[in-house]
Amino acid sequence: MYNRTMNTKEILKKTEYEIRKGSLDREAKGIAFDNRKVKEGDVFVCIKGVLFDTHSVVREIAEKDPSVIVVSRDWADEHKDVVDSLPCDVVSVEDTRAAKAAVSCVWYGDPSSELTVIGVTGSKGKTTTSHMIMSMIEKAGRSVGMVGTTGGHINGKEYHFGTTTPDSDKMQEILRMMVDEGCEYAVVEASSQGLKMHRTDQIDFDYGVFLNIDKGDHVSPTEHESFEDYLYCKSLLMKMSKTCVINQDDAHFEYMKNAAGPGKKVYGYGENGDPDYKVSGVYERIVCGKPCVGFDIARKDGGFRDDILIGLPGTFNVVNAAAAVAMADLLGLDMGKVKQSLTKIRVIGRLDMIYRTPDLSVCIDYAHNGLSTRNLLKALRSYEPKRIVLVFGCGGDRDLDRRPEMGRAAGELADFSIITSEHNRFEEFSDILKGIKLGIDQTGGDYIVIEDRKEAIRKAILDSEKGDLVAVIGIGNDGCQHDHGKNIPHDDIEFSRQMIREWEKKTGKENE
After folding, report:
1. Are 138 and 145 in contact (CB under 8 A)?
2. By the 8 A CB rule, do 340 and 145 touch?
3. What is the mean pLDDT of residues 41-68?
């Protein structure tokens, strides 16, 4: 862990606070946010979480002799007697999550100030676009780190964190690791929840990329209360970034441009109107037996024009690649190297063709709503399979409209579907299934239900017909299923590979 000697006043220098008790003259020996892990001399910040509020155990925390406890102003006003009784320094702040980010930033030495940081947000395509940008920078011979849904990637090393945008303390630690590993650039997937919950606070974003926003995504009691809140949280990245790259074809381009604020450099990209980076001539093509998509892109001032080929099917990837190419141009990367990286791009768990033969193909993807499922299934037709067999479910405690929308997409565009569990979270699978069936039954699509995800994948692969393409979607490379407060280990990619090996033995293909 990055460490340094400082006192409590210094570690709180980026935090607006009110001293409720003490003088803030102790040495800060560490930072802590989990009441079970706090040690003597730590700066402890209380957080009110979904399931637990550490303000409720502040007396127990104080007994472990932290250098200072940071609490919310409202809590301190309501519990003055508790504050007065604590045997340690106490300060109050307006928002303890914001304070957590500020304290973490100071503790890890403000690492983003030593990097060129590129943030990427959008309802769809964050992971793919982030990987494209990282791949371009690497191909150009520069040192880069990335953090997002697929984990952390630092100079070829991989790390796993469990969320798209890790909590602010982990985020600052990761950025410090990047600096210590000699990275020049950092690519950060900025989810709407990450922006809302202050996980990206105190990051010095040099560039912010906005891809798109979908009205039916991430609006639920456990995410965003309304589309307006979802849109606003996405726009926070534009406010935080010095330079913004925004999809001009998205209906909310002007909103995002205005959100960036005065004095910002804003570059639009897209097919329509007169953007700074104009996309045209989109086409699909088979290259060396592999479906690809291509397009032309030109900068309005005439300083850059090129043709781009992406080693992935699906015209929806044009939005992602155009944003990445615009970023590469702004960074001054070698465009020849950039083009090479795009033709060979592979994103784990995103349109990830882990197995491909004339007899059987298997694809893993993260599609978890109706639009992304439609886009995926249309793209997979480029491989000309005999049938597309879709293994899918839908997440619990999320927008209810996703369920019938995914059901309709499966019924209309897949040849056969196996409906299974995804991340049930705190809902019963039977309740989620009702919503999916509401959509798929309207289409007359052919399907069966197998609740156990492993068994669903097993059946799809082992009972496949010659020429089938099996698509397993919804989890990507998450590595687990969330079910009633438990993270049950499960890897769609690894388990599918196990089933492929069984299929090869069953069909005699293992020695071919």
Report:
1. no
2. no
3. 95
Residue 285 CA to chain centroid, in angstroms? 29
> DSSP letters of 13-81?
TTS--EEEES---SEE-EEE--TTT--TTEEEE--B-SS-BGGGGHHHHHTT--SEEEEEHHHHHHTHH
Q: How many CB atoms sit inside 10 A of residue 56's CB?
A: 12
CB atoms within 10 A of CB 468: 21
User: Residue 151 has which token pair?
Assistant: 């984990």
Q: How far apart are CA 369 and CA 195, in angstroms?
A: 21
Separation of alpha carbons 129 and 131, rounded Å: 5
Q: What angle do CA 221, 227, 232 make, to 5 degrees?
A: 110
Domain spanning 110-343: which superfamily? Mur-like, catalytic domain (3.40.1190.10)
Fold designation for 6-106: 3.40.1390
What does each C-alpha distance from 137 to 114, 131, 214, 342, 352 come to in angstroms? 17, 10, 29, 11, 21
* CA distance linking residue 108 with residue 105, whole number of Å: 5
Strand intervals (E) in 456-503: 468-473, 480-483, 486-489
The chain-wide mean pLDDT, for the chain, equals 94
**Options 3.90.190.20, 3.40.50.300, 3.30.1330.30, 3.20.20.370; CATH of 352-507:** 3.90.190.20
Under 8 Å between Cβ of 349 and 364 = yes
Taking the C-alpha atoms of residue 93 and residue 81, their distance in angstroms, rounded to an integer, is 18
Which residues belong to CATH 3.40.1190.10 in the chain?
110-343
Greatest alpha-carbon pair distance for the chain in Å reads 76
Tokens matching residue 260: 């960036």
Q: What is the distance between the alpha carbons of residues 439 and 403, in angstroms, rounded to a whole number?
A: 7
Q: Can you read off the two tokens belonging to residue 321? A: 């690649």
- In the chain, ranges of CATH 3.40.1390.10 domains: 6-106
DSSP designation for 281:
E
Q: Is 281 left (phi over 0), alpha (psi -120 to 50) or beta?
A: left
Lowest-confidence pick of 98-102, 145-149, 420-424: 145-149
Cα separation, 178 vs 111, whole angstroms = 8
Query: Which of 219, 185, 162, 246 has its CA nearest to residue 399?
Result: 219
pLDDT, average across residues 446-462: 98
At 182 the three-state DSSP class reads coil
From residue 390, alpha-carbon distances to 99, 310, 355 in Å are 45, 24, 15
**Angle value at C-alpha 37, between 34 and 40, nearest 5 degrees:** 115
* Confidence check: pLDDT of 289 > 90: no
